[in-house]
From TrEMBL, chain A:
Its main location: endoplasmic reticulum. One of its GO terms (biological process) is SRP-dependent cotranslational protein targeting to membrane. The lineage of its organism: Eukaryota, Metazoa, Chordata, Craniata, Vertebrata. This is SRP receptor subunit alpha. One of its GO terms (cellular component) is signal recognition particle receptor complex. Keywords: Endoplasmic reticulum, GTP-binding, Membrane, Nucleotide-binding, Receptor. Coiled coil: none annotated. Residues 158-184, 231-243 have a biased composition (Basic and acidic residues).
UniProtKB/TrEMBL annotation, chain B:
The keyword Transmembrane applies. GO terms for molecular function: GTP binding; GTPase activity. GO terms for biological process: Golgi to plasma membrane protein transport; intracellular protein transport; protein localization to Golgi apparatus. This is ADP-ribosylation factor-related protein 1. Belongs to the SRP receptor beta subunit family. Trans-Golgi-associated GTPase that regulates protein sorting. Controls the targeting of ARL1 and its effector to the trans-Golgi. Required for the lipidation of chylomicrons in the intestine and required for VLDL lipidation in the liver. InterPro entries: P-loop_NTPase, Small_GTP-bd, Small_GTPase_ARF, SRP_receptor_beta_su. The gene is LOC110503251. Interacts with SYS1. The chain crosses the membrane at residues 37-60. Pfam families: SRPRB. GO terms for cellular component: endoplasmic reticulum membrane; Golgi apparatus. It is found in: Endoplasmic reticulum membrane.
Length: 606, 272
């Protein structure tokens, strides 16, 4: 049933692999895709991933630096896979402990892992265990709970009409239950608590419920008798609570009643943590050396050890303006990466976790592709076509200002720029761009560039279709041999469907070389919503099967935040695209590139 | 008159020595009181401590002296397979590396020198961190290039090479550079000479665009090392380090079970 199963080291060497019968394609492609999109993008929180028709599940072994991946067809739902991977991992570790414990890759290269027989045995066991459970058959009416309730207990006491309504229903049920009635009487003796209400009268049921209610409320004012507590039978549900897909999660997370106790625990400094942890172990192992053993020597990290540190880190990240769900996903991913890892001597849990978190943050901020706009513009110039950059974003983030800054940078490096005024909605948008054009031309007068103005504006006034203007602008640029076309679009909210459709149409029709999303650094959790909805709109309204999505991010208003730089992390994590420009002010010179290390340093600073 | 300053000086010197004299005398007395063997013991232990400190310092500084050869390159260029072939000669299936792998390597020369071979991951988001970690320990770098899809990737290859060559630590230590044009078993593979020419052209352009790149947001500019000679087209011979281009095939032309064609690579490594 499985398509393949591989075991490889984190350094890339495949130690053992298994390919299911009848499977001809190599599994290297899907596994590489898994590594690149999940593990390297710090999404290891959930351990399954789907690629084309395959569904992949994986498990990291951090002590010996191994990865276990299993792949099977997406349409099959195999229930034994999770437990199977765990079993295989334990088995493999136990069997090849000696080879795996040696440092250096030589042991892995030279040893041959003959794991087939064990694997087949484990697979057979897993398949049999899943078959043995079999499909759950439906319970017969006699075995269900409903048959054990009396008709009386299901009748409500509130007013006579209710009783009549229920009575109607009850008559139907009574006929069905006629058979069950006989079974009820003997079994009534062994009832559980909720069905124990049968024997009592209605008043006694109400009294009992009231007592429970009071107990729960712990001293809340006693409910008036008119407010009768709910009967045993559930009323049909009225309004269901609306669940927003991207909104906050359940209120369970806001319940700090337990974590306060732990928080005080973990709020102490690390030494105290260690000492306490060592003390706990000391009591168990006995003797003074137990405490020392916790401090020195190798100890493998477990989920409980990391829990307090990760909570603190999560709060720290959220305080630094990282979106809440991204902070928790990041912390889960770091926990997965560190689980089972053996720490060196004299390293505390907190320092290991902090180091791992820092590494993953730097990794997220590193661009996953080459980012060199000037080189790409040169390439487009050699192909005799203009390089088209489109700016999109919500209202007021700084699209037009940063467009002007980028065109300044480009003309400083000797490229000719055409600005396409596709913001046909906002009052004064075209005039604003015209002012920028005049200023830039006065800074670099046409005399220096062979009599031709280095920046030109292509505009068609207000109220026209933006996609059409963009297409004409690009054609004009091609005719006049401009190097770069900068397309300014109107700001729009991500929930505004017609405007999002219009933007998607502009991008799908004109196929720009670079689609830049302009986002401000002040944004918090909104960033996630904006980017997801923008990407979704671009994907939905494009006709091709390879839609153009957001290619890069411009992070503006960076000078207004001191070290609350979390928006950078949220945006790159959600899209996986690099931050191409950073806007640090409102003059032409305030354009920078992102330095990942500096940002992460500012983020992790206490 | 001339003697007067001299007398004054002497008096001054005497005055300066005088405060120390009683202390020196006391010290001399204490030392003489001690058992000579005890004194010798103290002197010997002090000497041992001093020698150990000097030795440790020497050893520690030797660690940072280059003793490693790094295998770098873009993702999917064949570094991990090359690593496996060089160390054990076997063919192993590989996946994208997430961490580095290192192992001692015995060079095939008469001296039998051995150093550490380190295989760094090539994925774009991991590359800078690992290069940062290992660059100071590098005595040579083997830059692995996928010759079959070189045409499509030429800009990425050149950018990474530029990043390596303009790094301040690398330009200071000047490790030798071997560009291994891998995957020669594929028919469309480009030759080493062609790759060299293309890279030179591309690096020429990169010199201009990279120096015009924006500075980082905290003010730190990029590397200010200028490659090659100003005013002339870039050539690899202008670099201060030894650069060598060679062809190899980690998979080998006879399929997975055959030998790999890495003879030229092994020869170059032996010359290090």
């Amino acid at each position: 049933m499985l398509d393949f199963f591989t075991i490889f080291s984190k350094g890339g060497i495949v130690l053992w692999c298994f390919q299911g019968t009848g499977v001809t394609e190599s599994f290297t492609g899907p596994v590489n895709a898994l590594i690149r999109s999940v593990i390297l993008q710090e999404r290891s929180g959930n351990n399954s991933y789907s690629h084309d028709a395959l569904s992949l599940k994986y498990k990291l072994d951090n002590e010996f630096e191994l990865v276990f991946v299993v792949g099977f067809q997406k349409i099959l739902t195999l229930t034994y896979v999770d437990k199977f991977i765990d079993d295989v991992q334990l088995h493999f570790r136990d069997r090849y402990k000696n080879e795996l414990e040696q440092k250096g890759a030589l042991a892995l290269l030279n040893s041959h892992f003959a794991f087939e027989d064990d694997f087949k045995m484990l697979l057979r066991e897993a398949e049999e265990s899943s078959k043995a459970r079999g499909p759950t058959s439906m319970r017969s009416f006699n075995a269900s709970l409903k048959s054990q309730k009396t008709v009386k207990s299901m009748i409500e006491t509130k007013g006579g009409d209710k009783g009549k309504e229920q009575g109607g229903k009850k008559n139907k049920n009574a006929k069905k239950e006629g058979k069950g009635e006989k079974a009820k009487a003997p079994t009534s003796a062994q009832k559980t608590e909720e069905n124990g209400n049968q024997g009592l009268t209605q008043e006694e049921i109400i009294q009992k419920k009231r007592e429970e209610f009071i107990r729960k409320r712990m001293g809340a004012p006693v409910e008036k008798p008119s407010k009768s507590p709910k009967p045993v039978k559930e009323k049909p549900k009225g309004k269901e609570k609306r669940v927003w897909t991207l909104g906050g999660s359940s209120t369970k997370e806001l319940d700090y009643s337990q974590s306060n106790g732990n928080g005080a625990h973990a709020a102490g400094d690390q030494g105290l943590d260690r000492g306490r942890g060592g003390g706990r172990r000391c009591c168990r192992e006995g003797g003074m050396f137990g405490m020392l053993k916790g401090l020195v020597g190798s100890k493998s990290l477990s989920q409980e050890d990391m829990e307090p540190v990760l909570d603190k880190m999560r709060d720290h990240l959220i305080a630094k303006n990282v979106a809440a769900e991204i902070a928790s996903q990041l912390c889960d991913s770091v926990a997965k990466k560190l689980e089972g890892k053996v720490m060196g001597t004299f390293t505390t849990v907190a320092s290991t976790v902090k180091g791992a978190l820092q590494d993953s943050l730097v990794q997220i901020l590193q661009p996953k592709r080459r980012v060199d706009i000037l080189r790409d513009v040169l390439e487009a110039r050699s192909q005799r076509r203009p390089f088209v950059i489109t700016f999109c974003g919500v209202n007021g983030v700084g699209k037009s200002t940063n467009l002007a800054k980028i065109s300044f940078w480009l003309i400083e490096n000797g490229f000719t720029v055409l600005i396409a005024a596709c913001d046909t909605f906002r009052a004064g948008a075209v005039e604003q761009l015209r002012t920028h054009q005049r200023r830039l031309n006065s800074l670099h007068p046409p005399q220096d560039h062979g009599g031709r103005p280095i920046v030109q504006l292509y505009e068609k006034g207000y109220g026209k279709d933006a996609a059409g203007i963009a297409m004409e602008a690009i054609a004009y640029a091609r005719n006049q041999a401009f190097d770069v076309v900068l397309v300014d679009t109107a700001g729009r909210m991500q929930d505004n469907t017609p405007l999002m459709t219009a933007l998607a149409k502009l991008i799908a029709v004109n196929m720009p070389d670079l689609v830049l999303f302009v986002g401000e650094a002040l944004v918090g959790n909104e960033a996630v919503d904006q980017l997801v909805k923008f990407n979704q709109a671009l994907a939905d309204h494009s006709m091709s099967d390879k839609p153009r999505l957001i290619d890069g991010i411009v992070l503006t208003k960076f000078d207004t935040i001191d070290d609350k730089v979390g928006a950078a992390i949220s945006m790159t994590y959600i899209t996986g695209q690099p931050i191409v420009f950073v806007g640090t002010g409102q003059t032409y010179n305030d354009l920078r590139s992102l330095n990942a290390r500096a940002v992460v340093g500012a983020l992790m600073k206490a | 008159m001339a003697t007067e300053p001299g007398i004054n000086m002497e008096a001054k010197i005497d005055a300066r020595e005088n405060p120390f004299e009683p202390y020196l005398d006391a010290l001399k007395k204490v030392l003489e009181d001690q058992d000579p063997i005890f004194m010798i013991g103290i002197v010997v232990s002090l000497a041992v401590v001093v020698i150990t400190v000097v030795f440790l310092k020497y050893l520690l500084s030797r660690k940072t002296v280059q003793s490693a050869v790094l295998l770098v390159g873009l993702c999917d260029s064949g570094k991990t397979l090359l690593f496996s072939r060089l160390l054990s000669g076997k063919f192993k299936k590989t996946q994208t590396s997430i961490t580095d792998s290192s192992a001692p390597y015995k060079a095939k020369n008469e001296r039998g020198s051995s150093w550490i071979l380190i295989d760094l991951p090539g994925h774009d988001s991991l590359r800078p961190q690992y290069v940062e970690k290992f660059k100071s320990a590098a005595r040579a770098m083997v830059f692995v290039v996928d010759s079959a899809i070189f045409q499509k990737e030429v800009r990425d290859v050149a950018e990474f090479l530029y990043f390596l060559l303009t790094d301040s630590v690398v330009s200071r230590n000047v490790p030798s550079l071997i560009v291994a044009c891998n995957k020669q078993d594929i028919t469309m593979a480009k030759s080493a000479k062609l790759i060299r020419q293309q890279l030179e052209k591309e690096m020429n352009t990169l010199r201009v665009t990279r120096s015009a790149a924006l500075s980082a947001q905290d003010g730190s500019a990029g590397a200010s090392v200028h490659l090659g000679k100003k005013g002339k087209d870039f050539e690899f011979s202008q670099l201060p380090m030894k650069v060598e281009f060679l062809e190899c095939s980690a998979r080998g032309s006879k399929g997975e079970d055959g030998e790999a064609d890495i003879a030229s690579l092994e020869k170059s490594l032996a010359l290090l």
